[in-house]
Amino acid sequence: QVPLKPGRSLMDWIRLTKSGKDLAGLKGKLIEVTEDELAKHNKKEDCWICIRGFVYNVTPYMEYHPGGEDELMKAAGTDGTDLFDQVHRWVNYESMLKECLVGRMAVKPIAAPKGEGCCIYSVFLQQIPEDKTILCMRTFISNVLLHFFFCFQSRTDVYDWFQTDSLITIVIYTKQKDMNAELVIVDCQDKRLRGEIIVDDHSYLVEVGRYCNFACETFSLLVNIAEKVGKVEIILKKKDNIHWKMLGQPLEHHNTFIKCKDRGLFYRKCKLVSKMEVTHDTKLFCLMLPKSTHLRVPTGQHVYLKQIIAGTEVVKPYTPVLPFLPLDFKEPSHYDGAHIYLMIKIYSCGLFTQALDDLQIGTYISVSNPEGNFKKSQVQTSEDLFLLAAGTGFTPMVKLLNFALTEVSCLRIVKLIFFNKTDDDILWRNQLEELVLKDERFEVQFILSQPTKDWVGKQGKISSSLLSEFVKRSRKDSKVLICICGPTPFAEQGVQ
What we know:
- It contains 13 helices and 27 strands.
- By secondary structure, it is of the alpha+beta class.
- The strands form five sheets. Strands 19-18-22-15-16-21-20 form a seven-stranded antiparallel β-sheet. Strands 8, 9, 10, 13, 14 and 17 form a six-stranded antiparallel β-sheet that branches.
- Strand 6 (158-163) and strand 7 form a beta hairpin.
- The longest helix is centred in the first third of the chain and has 23 residues, at 133-155.
- The chain is globular, with a radius of gyration of 27 Å.
- The two termini are 18 Å apart.
């Protein structure tokens, strides 16, 4: 993110979109935009961008964009869908930019040259002698069908279901030997069942509705996993003890196997059950998942919170933490997967965090499925682990610390280098210092950029000289993993 000028906050943008001004510049008309026309609008003072087939005039949004004007200009006059998905596909651009809509991209027709075959198959067959055409066609179709069949079998999971008088059991055979609870996400709400299985970077979905009628309010669904064979069982209670003829009406994406990034985010309503102060400006929020949801957020992954603020949908990412740092290196016994804990800094001028802080206990907020590409195997193959965190960039390190000290015996050093402005900003300082006493592998170094006169520890900002002092291999040839999280300038400087 970049610093924005005064009067250019998210709330200011929402006010502007509701002011009645012609932000699209077309006096309320929608037009069909050709590629040539789109390409003409590629300057800061005249910038159009295409996202998923729709064209927006983002010129008035330039000064309000948290990522800065230069980021928007990377897609100026072009289709920016891929760039948008790489940076923040979770943002509801349709809501944010609805007053900037210019129109839809024109579909360019493809004309077949006269006298040539209309498709590749007929071109292919024209080159074959007439008496062999039928045989070749049969062989060609057979090969295509066989190829499709084997791809389907190797890439798509298979599910089945059966019932007793009171229960429905859905069985999914993933063939994934390291299947675990973090790779299974199940939601049952509004007479709709959604079960998603993560297989590497792909997602398999069972999604049915209309006829399914489960006792979600009184029965917590069960998920059983046979890890060695990759079998997943989802067990739900019927609302009425009657015989079902079918599981439910298949919905649009039912029984599909696609890349996770193409799946789209799914949200469920979670209840706010507590708020606890961590520091003067940071709080620990505890959200309770619905009884009919099975969701475990993997280490190093984040979720998105969604709120409607002044009529506009606003979404922000946060990395869940544990309720506290376990000093016996085990998950707390009461941490049963029914809650999500988020450590969030409340900004005095932050529209989203102020709205979060104003939420009353018992109110609901939308929470997405987890996202992220961090792999635990990166830690499991390392000998020295260094964690560089600034401010609430500490949050991904909480579960990572617990995992490293609990489950990775090959680690010789686990060191947290924690940057903050003042002593009062340090999150969970006492717990971290207690953790040092509990495990000789763990070290923590606090570094302040604006210390008081009483501070006797290190001071400064992230730099090569500071890091060279603290990031040292335990052995000459040890395998090192360095994880960095914090504001963008901090992360970029750390990588350099």
